[in-house]
Design goal:
Blueprint (H helix, E strand, L loop, with lengths): L3 H26 L1
Length: 30
């Protein structure tokens, strides 16, 4: 089965990438 801590870490990494991507888009639009 999956390691829950791995799933949580992977989820947080994806959230961080989304926030960085959104910040990049906002800076690019301005």
């Amino acid at each position: 089965g999956y390691d829950i801590s791995f799933l949580i870490t992977n989820f947080h990494c994806e959230e961080m990438h989304k926030h960085k991507l959104i910040d990049f888009i906002i800076q690019f639009m301005e």
